[in-house]
Design brief:
With 277 residues, this protein is of the alpha/beta class. It is 41% helix and 20% strand. It is built from 10 helices and 10 strands. A 10-stranded mixed beta sheet has the order 3-2-1-4-5-10-9-6-7-8, with helices on both faces. It is elongated, with a radius of gyration of 20 Å. The two termini are 19 Å apart.
Amino acid sequence: MAARGRVVVGYDGSAGSAAAVRLAAAEAAASGGLLHLVHAQLTRSAYALLLPPGAVGAAAVEAERLVAAARARLHQDYPDLPVRPAVVLGGPGAALVRAARGATLLVVGRTGSGPDGVAAHVMAGAACPVTVVGGDAAPPWHSGGRPVVLGFDAAAALSPAVPFAFGAARLRGAGLRVCHVRCPGDDPWARDADARREVSEALAGWRAAHPDVPVAVDVLTGVDPAARLLDAAADAVLVVLGGRGAGRPGRIADVVTRNAACPVTVVRAAGRLVAVS
């Protein structure tokens, strides 16, 4: 992730979104960036359909109080971190996509499930990388000896997910575990060796650009790549996956973000691919 960028995080007062805020604050502080704390609030006309008379104004006041309290807690933990709080109108998915325009990272809690959840909405619409934080407890940001896992296939060699994963590992002082999943074959030993060599060759430029990041290449065998990546996520500090461009995330990203024990970042290709030689 580029230094001095803007990290956007969605916050609705829930324990899950509070965990996302803590992770986003650690990301922004480590990269020397700004944290944009966003609370999405329905319009007054929408609230009028949901709330009793007289409660609409109270909802607006409560939203401001919620964001101010979150900012105060952040100042205690990160006194030097610039925080920009904002209460914006609209549904949370659309509001966060708008807020994340020009951002380096968008962080959300894993609220809801399936294609209609906020995480799925922002992964489909945001141009920047999206990190999904599962659970109500803030995950450790520093590695503690655990690696950053990068899901890698032939299409990932030029994906912006690769430099993002190297950068995330460097910031956390972690190693990078590159996982390539292939289907079972008749000659697993030969195919594993071939696949490992191909992945290592594809990463050679990135490894040279990041000599301080230890890299391990693993070839995993299985008929379901998402299931094998979830196995790898069990011992990871972060999982990084490439996206498919515009539109909803693919099945692998959807399954991993909804089920991984650690945070998952989906990095979507934006226009052109990136190469390092």
